[in-house]
Structures are given as structure tokens and as C-alpha cells.
Specification:
The structure holds 2 protein chains of 2 kinds. By secondary structure, chain A is an all-alpha fold. Chain A is 77% helix and 0% strand. In chain A, helix 5 runs parallel beside helix 13. Chain B is globular, with a radius of gyration of 24 Å. By secondary structure, chain B is α+β, with helices and mostly antiparallel strands. Chain B has 2 domains: 311 residues, Periplasmic binding protein-like II (D-Maltodextrin-Binding Protein, domain 2), CATH 3.40.190; 232 residues, Dipeptide-binding Protein, domain 3 (Roll), CATH 3.10.105.10. Classes of the chains: A mainly alpha, B alpha+beta. At the A-B interface, helix 2, helix 3, helix 7 and helix 12 of A face helix 8, helix 14 and helix 15 of B.
Chain lengths: 304, 562
């Protein structure tokens, strides 16, 4: 297990270095920040002066080494607007993290029961309903769902606020908008896993022994069916933590997604790099944790 | 029926702005023309709370000298907290603000500004000339500054304070010096901050700013919201008292998505909301009151790089004219912009702006003549002219540009031009524009399509510096559009404008330059668009101004309903 753990952590660090390097060089292909920060009518010498003040006139390898050196001390540099990138990211992270958890809550609370009921009552009206919900969730774009939720529940029914992070009720609509697609994914995955497990020998044995149906489903079938769902849920949480640009825009939510988009548009390289690294850290860490949990739950993994 | 706030800038009033000429001293407008006369203290003092919505509230907590592109993104809240030396009144006239008067020396090298006395900062300190000189020096000369104003360092010799006056010495005569520090030019590095407060609290100042404006900042919530309260200190100057806000508390919130803004207005969660033109129609008749600011944005189109390539079809003046008169501007204004736009006559400066010749009509739609001109140039069905319209959709600039591009392409196709539209991301387009990537003609291959670059922008009051820089620059900046060597007239005319210290003469020279541009079809003016705001019934009046562009601005002048 220790060897497995060390190997996975080494892979994670390697992946992070690769992503950081890739992002560093790719963002520099997207345009000249000095031209964007200055008016397009600014003379060439003024843009050169700004580039020098921002350190963009140095050779690329020098900029890269300096940036990578800073990362070791958690220094992500400064935004072109002067603020430390780490401060900007940390200011946005709570909004994104809390919304991600709320969306995950929606996905699990709705997705798991739908998947279980759909599998247990295969072919029934419940199954059809659950599959319809799943299809709807996977086929409806988040931006449309977000706008419809606002229109119905905020403008017409006046149950929830239109936008902004201002109290528990403000989480409901954006969490549904973000989490709905995951509801569909989880429900479908739970359904197919449950169907596999429900057809397995040990479940048939449990039923033959006369165990109540609820015990068979929840204690024996569901626990085994949960393993593939765990991987999926980990990836979903990772994507939620990236922040959803569309949903954050519609609900004026001050999260990482909108920040990253704005930084890309303004070619604020340090913020783009910092945001991508932060997202990569989330993904890699969650994947690592899921893998470790997977190994814990399924002994075949750690002995492989 | 929407109310219309006409914001036509009265050109004559500009005469009193920087009255200057070689050998004569300039005079600033007389006292009493200030914006305070437009609103004033309602009597009972500010009352109640108002919520205004903005597409973004960036720049909060940031040192202004590190905000290279801060001009408009931060203005929604910055301008109500801080003051400038010159402002615009509701009619568009430039009027004294923190400076009561200003003049220029006979040699044109020294501008002297007299600073208003008795103006109080929000912390009770009194503003003086030293604050002004410190603020201006910092934005230009501080080594940490990345503000656009650092470009002035090459011509500014010194900025010093003496008594209640500030002197700006330049190495060459600079007609636009007062505009550098005004609220309206778009390079608003000129806001005045408290030197003593900065020395006391350092960079904390930018998250807890202290200004002289009608509102003082109470708190900021990231870039999501800001809460301000009316500055009502009894010791403030009469000038400040004249600018007392109508509402006691002002809550500013960011909502980047237009549909969210409409919903906030409909649910009563907001009182003033900038609206996309596409939403206006559905709100008409819904009880929501609309305020329209005319000519807030403008759009133009350039035939790129033709002067660099002798084989470019755009070297034929007839082709340039055909590309302009083939566009049904009025039709597009009505169909695409639902009447919230109008044909444009301007060349960089929009209607009402400084130097825009009001007598110059927008190019008339004449597809038959356009077709004939193209035939004269050798383009017909067997040899059609091929063009690519390069366009971006930029929030805050001219709205709905890609849709307009499609409509123009339709006009072109109707007379046999092979027209396609390339919609790109703005900055990528600019990179390609200035990097010559779109200038197919440059390669000398006549079969490559003509590139028409569409550009939307706010309708700035005073664009002289920018025009001079762009169109007389023979480096890669300017020559993407016109090459200065090929158009010596252009360089000569714009240099003449820039060097003219007499503001009246300067405006006439600029108008002449625009007429010359029109005669030679050197640019294709398109449309101007109005900014539309939805307001709740809590508002009775508001001085929406052309300098405010498309965002909610000048919030102190919002007046409560009875």
C-alpha cells in the first residue's frame, strides 16, 4: 500500500509540473498583455515600457525559471493589476468551494435515490421517470437551465433571490443549475452498477436466505455499486471546484470560473497561470484521494 | 415611451475649456457653470437607499497606478468617490471641478491650474495643491506605475505645487494637458487623492479610499458589490454641497449577464440597470421606465493595409466609396438595433464629440451607384470583389457588432460582392490587426480578399491624442490602417491639430480633417448606438451623460421620487 501511495503522489507532482509548464508557455501564445493593457492607440515605445515594468521583456526561460522558483514558496506572482495572485485566488475560492459542495449535495441527494429506484424498479414508471430526469439533465445546457430557474423561481414565483451570494437561499438555484448534469450522471451510473450487482450471485444468495429487500438493496447491493460512482463523483467535484463560468455569470457569483475567464480575456498571465494551477491541484488531489479510497474499498487495486 | 436624455456635447462650450493660443493666455470657464447647478441639495438632505447594477466592479482595492486599463472598468464606483479637475455638466459642457481655472504660458510649455479652496476629503482633511501634484506625479513618474499615463513621462518636465496652484511643465507645447487630468477624456489618471492619508496608512488607502466625491465608501465585497454613503460633512465646501447625492445610501452590485440584470429590475432588487438593446423591446410596456442616452457608442470599419500594397482594390477611391455607400445604415439601425441606433457620420469622433463636424452627413445608401463604381473598377459578376469582415463582440463597446456585420455582408452580397464575416475574440483580432495577419494584400496576391476591420468604441469627448498617435505613426501601430508615407496630408493635418493650443482653432482643424477623411472615403463610418437603462419608480431624475458611456455613472445625481 505504501509503495502504491508513493507512486501515486509522485505521479501527481509530475503531472502538476507538466501542467504548470504547459500553461506558462501556452498563455504566452495568446497575445501581448502590454498591447491589451494599454490602449490600442498607444505608441510602441509605451507598450515596450509597460512590458519592461511587468517583466515581460525578459527572455522566456528567465521568466519561466523565476516563476517556477516562486512556486516553491507558494508565490504565484502578482496580477498585472498589482495584487498578489494568491490573494486573488483565495478571495474567490470560498465562493466557488461552497457552491461546489452545495451542487455536489444536490447531485448526490437526487442522483443516488433516482439511480437506486430506477434499478430496483427496472422497467416501471419510476424507472422511466428516473431515466427521463437523467436524459433531461444531460441534454439541457447549464446556461439555459440557470436562466429558466431564475425566471421561474425568482422572477415569477419570487421564492429565491435572482443572484449573488447572500445567504443560504441564494445557493439553491445555482447549486441546482450546476449539479443537475451530475444528478443525471450519478443516477445513470448507480442504475447500471446496481443492475449488475442485483444480478450477481451473492445478492441472489442474500435474497434466497430470506433477507428483507431493503437490507439486500442497501446493505449488500448498494455498497458494491457505490465503487464506480465514487470515481465519477470525485471527478465531478473536481470540475465543480473549477467554477462554472456560465453559472457564475448568470448568478453573479464571485467564483474562480468567472475570474479565470476575465483573466484570459485581459491576458493577465499570472492570474491565468495561478488559476489553472489551483484547478490542477484540486483535480489531482481529488483523483489521488479517490484512488486511495478505491484501493481501500477494493483490495484488488492495492494488490495489483 | 422612453425618456430621452439628450447628451449632445455643445462644441462651443469647449471654447471656454482650454482657451489658449500662442501668445495669448487661455481662460477656463467661469465659476458657476459647475455640475452642481444641475442637481444640488434637494433640501432635506439625502435619504433612502438605492441599488445600481454594473456589468463589473473591478479595480476595487487596487492602487490606481497599477491599473493600466482602469479607465472604464473601475469608473462606476471610483468616480462617485473621487473628483477630477474638470468634469462635464449634463449638457456635455466641460466645467471646472477641483480646479477653478487654468491657463497656459505664452510659449505653451507651462500649464497652471488653480485649485479650489476649502474642498474636504472624507476624513476631514483639506485638499490642497500638494495633493494634486502628488497624485499626478505618482501616476506618471512612480516606477511602479503601469498606468497608461506613464506615456506622458516623455513630454512632462515636472509637476509642482506652489500655494494653491499646480504647474505642469512640458518639453514641447501640449494642447491636451488639461484633458489628461479630466474626468471625460478616458485616461482618468487625474483623480486626486490625499497625500497625507497615503503617508498615514500606505497601500491600505486603496481598500479604504478617502476621496472628495459626493459618496464615501463604506465597504467592498470583492468585486461583487460596494456600499457607499453620502458625504454630508457640514465643513465640506459649497461646491461639494452643491453635489450632495439624492440618495443617502448607494449599493452597487455587479451582474455581468444581461438577463440577470433584467430579472433584478423586474423583481425590484435593483433600481438602475444597464440594459442590452435586445431586452428593451420586451420591457417596453412592462411598466419599467427606460432612460436612453443617445450616441453612447459608435462603430467604424477600416479597409486594412491598402496603402501598403499597390495591388489592393482599396487603393481605388471608387472601391472605397462603394464599400461605404453599399451599406444600408438606416435599415440596419431599425432592424438590428430596433431604432436605438442611427447612421454615423464620424471618423473616430462620434456625434457631439469634440471636432465632429455636425454638417457632415452619414454616407447615403446607394447600392446602384456602388455597383457602378465597382464595375468601373473592374469588379463584376465574372470578377467579383471579395471581402472579409473581421469583427468581435466586445461588452461595453458598440453592442451587437457581429449581427451588424452579418447585415452589412448581406448588403454587399446584394450588389455582387463576395462577403464573409469572421467573428473573433477582440484581443485576438487586435493582435492580428496590428501584427498584419489580416493584411492579405500585403503579400501582393490580388486574389486575396479585402479585409474590412470593424471596430466599436465609446463615443469619447476628446480623441485628439489617440487619433494623432494612431494615424500619424509610421510604425506598426498606425500603418495597419493607413501608411503615413502614403498619406502625408493626414500626418500634416493631425500634427497641426495636436500642435494647436487654441482650442477653438483646434476643433475647427479637427473638423476639417474629418471632412477630408470623408471626401477621400478613408474610413467607413457605420452606426452610433444609444445606451439604455431601466430604472425603478424610486427614481425621478438622473443626469445621464455622454461621458458615462454605457454604464451607470454619475450616481450622485440620481434623484428620489416624491
Amino acid at each position: 500500500m505504501t509503495r502504491y501511495l508513493v507512486g501515486r503522489i509522485f505521479q501527481a507532482v509530475l503531472g502538476l509540473v507538466f501542467i504548470t509548464t504547459l500553461v506558462f508557455f501556452l498563455v504566452r501564445l495568446t497575445g501581448d498583455p502590454a498591447r491589451i493593457l494599454m490602449s490600442d492607440f498607444a505608441p510602441l515605445e509605451l507598450r515596450e515600457e509597460l512590458a519592461q515594468r511587468l517583466g515581460l521583456d525578459r527572455p522566456l526561460y528567465e521568466q519561466y525559471l523565476s516563476y517556477m522558483g516562486g512556486l516553491f514558496s507558494l508565490d504565484l506572482g502578482r496580477s498585472f493589476n498589482g495584487q498578489p495572485v494568491i490573494d486573488i485566488l483565495l478571495a474567490r475560492f470560498p465562493a466557488t468551494a461552497s457552491l461546489a459542495l452545495a451542487a455536489m449535495f444536490v447531485a448526490i441527494v437526487l442522483g443516488l435515490p433516482l439511480g437506486i429506484l430506477s434499478a430496483v424498479y427496472r422497467g416501471s414508471a419510476i424507472d422511466i421517470f428516473a431515466r427521463t430526469v437523467a436524459l433531461f439533465g444531460q441534454s439541457v445546457p447549464a446556461f439555459w437551465l440557470a436562466i429558466m430557474l431564475v425566471l421561474i423561481f425568482a422572477v415569477i414565483l419570487r421564492i429565491f433571490p435572482v443572484a449573488y451570494s447572500q445567504g443560504i437561499e441564494s445557493y439553491v438555484l445555482p447549486a441546482i443549475a450546476i449539479g443537475w448534469a451530475a444528478v443525471a450522471g450519478i443516477a445513470r451510473l448507480v442504475r447500471s452498477s446496481m443492475l449488475d450487482v442485483l444480478d450477481s450471485d451473492y445478492v441472489r444468495m442474500a435474497r434466497a436466505k430470506g433477507l428483507p429487500s431493503t437490507v439486500v438493496v442497501v446493505k449488500h447491493a448498494f455498497r458494491s455499486a457505490l465503487i464506480p460512482v465514487l470515481t465519477f463523483a470525485g471527478l465531478v467535484l473536481g470540475s465543480f471546484l473549477n467554477g462554472s463560468v456560465v453559472v457564475e455569470t448568470v448568478f453573479a457569483w464571485p467564483g474562480l470560473g468567472k475570474l479565470t475567464l476575465d483573466a484570459v480575456n485581459s491576458r493577465d498571465f499570472p492570474v491565468v497561470q495561478g488559476a489553472v494551477i489551483m484547478i490542477a491541484v484540486f483535480f489531482i488531489t481529488i483523483n489521488l484521494l479517490v484512488d486511495l479510497l478505491y484501493a481501500f474499498l477494493d483490495p484488488r487495486v492495492r494488490y495489483r | 415611451m422612453p425618456r430621452k436624455f439628450s447628451t449632445t456635447v455643445v462644441a462651443g462650450a469647449v471654447l471656454s475649456l482650454i482657451m489658449a493660443s500662442c501668445g495669448t493666455q487661455a481662460q477656463s470657464p467661469s465659476e458657476g457653470e459647475g455640475p452642481g447647478n444641475s442637481g444640488g441639495d434637494p433640501g432635506g438632505g439625502p435619504q433612502g437607499e438605492i441599488v445600481t447594477i454594473h456589468s463589473s466592479l473591478t479595480g476595487q482595492g487596487q492602487d490606481p497606478i497599477t491599473q493600466a486599463a482602469l479607465e472604464w472598468s473601475h469608473k462606476p464606483w471610483w468616480d462617485d468617490v473621487h473628483d477630477f479637475i474638470i468634469e462635464q455638466d449634463p449638457d456635455g459642457n466641460l466645467v471646472p471641478a477641483l480646479a477653478t481655472e487654468w491657463d497656459v504660458s505664452e510659449d505653451g510649455l507651462t500649464w497652471t491650474f488653480t485649485i479650489r479652496e476649502g474642498v474636504k476629503f472624507h476624513n476631514g482633511d483639506t485638499l490642497d495643491a500638494e495633493d494634486v501634484a502628488w497624485s499626478w506625479n505618482r501616476v506618471i513618474f512612480d516606477p511602479e506605475s503601469t498606468h497608461t499615463m506613464i506615456g506622458r513621462a516623455s513630454v512632462v518636465e515636472s509637476i509642482t505645487a506652489d500655494g494653491n496652484q499646480v504647474m505642469v511643465e512640458t518639453t514641447t507645447p501640449q494642447a491636451a494637458v488639461p484633458m489628461w487630468w479630466s474626468e471625460v477624456d478616458g485616461e482618468s489618471g487625474g483623480a486626486v487623492y490625499s497625500k497625507a492619508y497615503f503617508e498615514e496608512v500606505g497601500n491600505e488607502m486603496w481598500s479604504q479610499p478617502v476621496g472628495t466625491g459626493p459618496y464615501e465608501l463604506v465597504s467592498m465585497d470583492g468585486e461583487q458589490s460596494a456600499t457607499l454613503t453620502a458625504f454630508v460633512d457640514d465643513d465640506r465646501s459649497d461646491w461639494q454641497k452643491d453635489r450632495t447625492p439624492g440618495f443617502k445610501d448607494l449599493i452597487m452590485r455587479a451582474a455581468p449577464d444581461p438577463s440577470t440584470r433584467v430579472a433584478l429590475l423586474q423583481t425590484g432588487e435593483a433600481d438602475v440597470v444597464p440594459l442590452p438593446i435586445s431586452s428593451v423591446e420586451e420591457l417596453e410596456g412592462s411598466g419599467v421606465e427606460l432612460i436612453e442616452v443617445e450616441n453612447a457608442a459608435q462603430s467604424v470599419m477600416w479597409c486594412l493595409g491598402f496603402s501598403l500594397n499597390p495591388d489592393s482594390p482599396c487603393n481605388e477611391v471608387g472601391v472605397r466609396e462603394a464599400l461605404s455607400i453599399a451599406i444600408d445604415r438606416a435599415g440596419i439601425a431599425e432592424s438590428v438595433y430596433r431604432g436605438y441606433a442611427a447612421p454615423h457620420n464620424g471618423y473616430m469622433a462620434g456625434p457631439g464629440a469634440f471636432g465632429n463636424p455636425e454638417d457632415l452627413a452619414a454616407p447615403a445608401y446607394d447600392p446602384d451607384r456602388a455597383q457602378q463604381l465597382l464595375a468601373d473598377a473592374g469588379f463584376d459578376e465574372s470578377n467579383p470583389l471579395s471581402v472579409v469582415l473581421v469583427v468581435a463582440d466586445v461588452p461595453g463597446d458598440m453592442p451587437m457588432m457581429p449581427t451588424m456585420a452579418e447585415a452589412i455582408a448581406g448588403n454587399y452580397q446584394a450588389i455582387g460582392i463576395e462577403a464573409t464575416v469572421r467573428i473573433g475574440e477582440e484581443e485576438a483580432n487586435k493582435e492580428a490587426l496590428f501584427g498584419f495577419e489580416y493584411n492579405g494584400q500585403e503579400s501582393g496576391d490580388p486574389s486575396l480578399p479585402v479585409t474590412l476591420y470593424m471596430r466599436g468604441m465609446d463615443n469619447r469627448f476628446y480623441f485628439v491624442d489617440s487619433q494623432v498617435t494612431q494615424f500619424t505613426d509610421d510604425s506598426e501601430n498606425g500603418s495597419s490602417v493607413w501608411n503615413a508615407e502614403e498619406f502625408p496630408d493626414m500626418t500634416e493635418r493631425l500634427s497641426g491639430v495636436a500642435g494647436e493650443l487654441d482650442i477653438d482653432a483646434q476643433e475647427e482643424l479637427l473638423a476639417d480633417y474629418h471632412r477630408w477623411m470623408a471626401e477621400n472615403w478613408l474610413q467607413i463610418p457605420l452606426l452610433t448606438a444609444n445606451a439604455v437603462f431601466g430604472v425603478s419608480d424610486a427614481i425621478s431624475d438622473w443626469d445621464a451623460r455622454i461621458a458615462g458611456k454605457g454604464f451607470v455613472h454619475n450616481q450622485w445625481s440620481l434623484r428620489p421620487a416624491d
